[in-house]
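User: Could you check the structure of this?
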Amino acid sequence: MRIKFLKQKIILPTIVLGILTPLCPIISAEKYPAHLKKVAIAYRTRAEKIKIDGKLDEKIWNRLPGISNFIQHEPEEGEIASQKSFVQIAYDNEALYIAFRAYDSKPNSIKKYLTRRDRDSPSDWVGFAVDSYHDRRTAFAFLVNPADVKIDIRLSNDNVQDINWDAIWDVATHIYSNGWVAEFRVPYNQLRFPKEDSLSWGFQAMRVVSRINETSYWSPRPKDAAGFVSLFGTLEGLNRVNNVESLQILPYAMATSHNKPPSERHADIQNPLNTYDIGGEIKYPFPNNLTLDLAINPDYGQVESDPSEFNLTAYETYFDEKRPFFLEGSNLFNYKVGIGMGRMAGGHLFYSRRIGRIPHTRLSNSLEFGVEQPPSTTILGAAKISGRTKNGWSIGILNAMTKEEQATIYEANTKRRQVVEPLSNYFVSRIQRDFNQGRTVLGGMATNVYRQPGSELAKLLPRTATTGGIDLTHKWEHHTYEFNFSIMGSHISGDTLAIQREQLSSARYYQRPDVEHLKYNPKRTYLAGFAGRFNLRKVGTGHWKWAVGGVTRSPGFEINDIGFMQTADFNSFFVWLGYNEYTPGIILRTYSVSSKAWKYFEFCYSYRKRRPVRAVCAIHKLLEFSTLAYQKPTKSRHRIVARRAGFSPSRSYKYVLSAADGQ
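Assistant: Sure, the predicted structure tokens are below.
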């Protein structure tokens, strides 16, 4: 039996790896040293105005030098790009201007697809990114395709992307007989940078030629690189740039009139029903690169709605943030409580969708009576201070207060009001400090929620909820190795009914009869717990990569009043090893082979007896062999993807093969 297991788990992956390795030549890890940097120069426009129309008919574009010599990332890493690109950079007191000339030997084959903003498509793309903090961790990226579809991305922690960030910027494109052109204008108030007479920013330019599956960068990006922002070149020449330190006010006013026919309205409902609202947002930059944001009864009626979802599970669905006030500087408030994939993944100490959420109580509108209830909780006011100082401090402080919401219930000839959301206050603070040029980051976070007592609903919700944690990230050997560690604690208190609901929730199920370490207590008035995670991994340079880590959460850990978490009460540990081949060979363009094993079990600790209840409560092991391979380009430009081959002692063998059109 052991011999059979070794054949399935070890020998077979080794044979496959041995067969595939000769098909692809080995790339040298020193082909592009991590210290290699390029320098671009930005030129002031003086009095000349630039019109964003994609035609580049201003005189400045005819005389400015630029940057070229793009290097392929895909498919032939390290080779000169097959299609020439030329980028010019200009600036004035208000904005940064980029002229991107994408020359093409077959202009009739330029791919362009019209989609919604921030949607990827198999189009040609050009774009650039700026690290305006010049901390080698944070950047703002702007891309466009020939159909004028825009994508803007905020990058944090070197390679973490936030596609929900939306800036206000202009771009126009035009297709010519020798290629196509993109002309960008990005106002300084959409970026964040220190106020200095002379600035140096990180800079990167990129291009995608869809028909040949080619991606190229101005500053080379090796396939085995661990990060992205840390590989940027440098943008020099920005002198006496206006930091736009001015007050910005965005007011709004709204009026509605709702008419119902007499047959569909209660006698107490006035017709028409008129409502009105006023409010707005204020932004003011503080010294030392900090920004104050204020929101008074903000209106988010024009914000993109959430996608439809049909959730039949016991766990809440996570939705991305879309509201501008909370997106501003949101990367500074990021504090993950999970790691990896599956049950260990996901979770944040601060989930901004809790503020202004749908009321906790939703009343049904049956045939016997009518109900008028608010669709969301009104944000009475919110204030936020966020930014990064010159000496490496990242600061984020937020406080928001939401209104007590009531629903009106009409029954027969009477009406009554019922509280569906209590008056609440939310507080969040986040601080981080960079050391060693951003390779070491130490931080902490603290949150608090307070709900006003008095209503029946308030008895069902925790009156106070407090969480906090500290985290450490360290990278070394040119970002090849990375270590992450964090520890967190939580404490909630309230009426016995509220703590009963938390004990019985799907996150922990204290009432389970099959466990010895949990005891349901209906008289409890508080719940406390802790959590932690660690991850040590090799993420760059070379073919071999590996990771080891784990997550622990005690049964009483609870952050869902202002954070997001699906489950508690578990320990989990994992080991992962993978081999990646990046250089195209005779048959395969690239492939990867990996194996992983993990163990997941309940927290299993008796607080009363102060000893482990049992060695293992629940064990789940899985050793998986995965492959990802791309066929070398052919005339039809199709590619074959072999996605996953999974093996488990308790399951049948599975192999999945899918085909995708690479055009």
